[in-house]
Every structure is written in C-alpha cells, then in structure tokens.
Amino acid sequence: MRTEFIFVFRLVLAAILGGFIGLERERLGRPAGLRTHTLVSIGSCLIMLISIYGFAGTKLVYDPGRLAAQVVSGIGFLGAGTIIREGLTIRGLTTAASLWLVAGIGLATGAGFWAGAVFSALLAVLTLILLENVEKKFISPRSAIIEVSVRKNGEEIGKISETLRGLGVHIRNIEIDIEDNDDFVHMQIVVDGREFPRDKVLGGLLGLNSIRKVQCR
C-alpha cells in the first residue's frame, strides 16, 4: 500500500509542476499550454516509474535508464510541432524548450528526485516571466511582422513597399498569399524590429486605398 501511495503522489506532483509551467504558457496564448505541459509531465513520470518498478521482482535483466532516454529524444517531435516559421522569424522555440524541461521534471519526479523537480519548476517559471520583462525593456526585437490585406486589383499593392521605405522601415522579406475565392491579397512583411515606428506604419498603410486590414506584431 505504501508503494502505491508513492506512485500516486509522484504522478500528482508531476501534474502540478507541469501545470505550473503550462499556466505561464497558457497566459501568453502559446500553442502548448496548461493541458499539454501537464500531460507531458505525467507521461514522463509514468515512464520513469515503469522503468524503475515495472520490472522489479522479475528475472529479466533490464536497464532503468533505457525508457527514460527515449523520453528525452522523443519529446523533440512534440516540441517541433510548437515551432512556427513566419517568413524569416521563428516562433515557438521557448515553448518547445519548456516542453523539453517539463519532460525532465516528470522524469525527476518519477525517480523521487523531489528537490530537483520542484526547484526546476520554480526556476523555469521565474525565467519565463522575469526574463520576458527584461527582454521587453532592454532588448529590442530583431524583427517585426506586418500583415496587410489589400484588394487584388488595388493599385496600392506596389505602394506598400514605397510607403514603408519612406517611413524608414527596412524590409527583410515579403510573402504574398493569393486565394482564388477571395477578393483580397494577404501580405506578410517581415521588417527590422529595431526602433520600429509602429504607429506611423499603421497610419501610413491605413491611409492607402483598397487596404482592408493592417496588423503589426
């Protein structure tokens, strides 16, 4: 009975620690949030419990670290699903890293390494929250994305680049998405994010005719 209680306690603790990090990702609307991080932590903990106790009492010769090693390599496929490439900008790397960390926390919890699991979760949340504020305050983003919807037959399509350059914006990349059943062309423009004049860009582009929507991020 005591052994079963230990199993349940470790799984619950793994769920709490994984959810703790997942809440921070959920707060920012990231692709992998509360449920994903919680499930990854529980699954990793369960695999570690199976590795340690699943074959105990048998005559089989086994290595408890083999299943755990598969978690470390296999979590990469899940993390890759959270990475999104938008022009020259890549998003989702932090979320992929947090999933990788949560898998490690689950393994540590399953192995009974309480201090390491709890401290890692606390340190991860502090890193995600505090360093985000540091980046916003002291580090300018290397790139920004401007999304524009303009009519296909509009004369302003060629004027968009001229307007941005006139505002001193350096264009890195332009992607155009044209759909046959849509009267609008969707443009995604990647620009230099250093000292990006967001308000001037919004005002300048919205002043052009045939433009339905402009969004900067």
Describe this protein's structure.
It is a single chain. The protein has helices at residues 2-27, 34-53, 65-80, 93-110, 114-138, 157-166, 198-206; strands at 84-86, 89-91, 143-151, 171-178, 184-192, 211-216. The radius of gyration is 24 Å and the shape is elongated. The strands form 2 sheets. The protein has a 4-stranded antiparallel β-sheet with strand order 4-5-3-6, covered by helices on one side. A two-stranded antiparallel ribbon has the order 1-2. Helix content is 57%, strand content 18%. The protein has 217 residues and is of the alpha+beta class. It folds into 2 domains: 2-138, no CATH class; 143-216, ACT domain (Alpha-Beta Plaits, 2-Layer Sandwich), CATH 3.30.70. Strand 4 (171-178) and strand 5 (184-192) form a beta hairpin.
Q: What's the structural domain tally?
A: 2
Fraction in beta strands: 15-25%
> Number of DSSP strands?
6
N-to-C series of helices and strands: HHHEEHHEHEEHE
Radius of gyration: 24 Å
Largest sheet data: 4 strands, antiparallel
Tally of alpha and pi helices: 7
Q: What is the terminal-to-terminal distance? A: 55 Å
User: Into which percent range does the helicity of residues fall?
Assistant: 55-70%
Shape: elongated
User: What value does the average pLDDT take?
Assistant: 81
Strand order of the largest sheet: 4-5-3-6
Helix-strand category = alpha+beta
Task: List low-pLDDT spans.
Answer: none
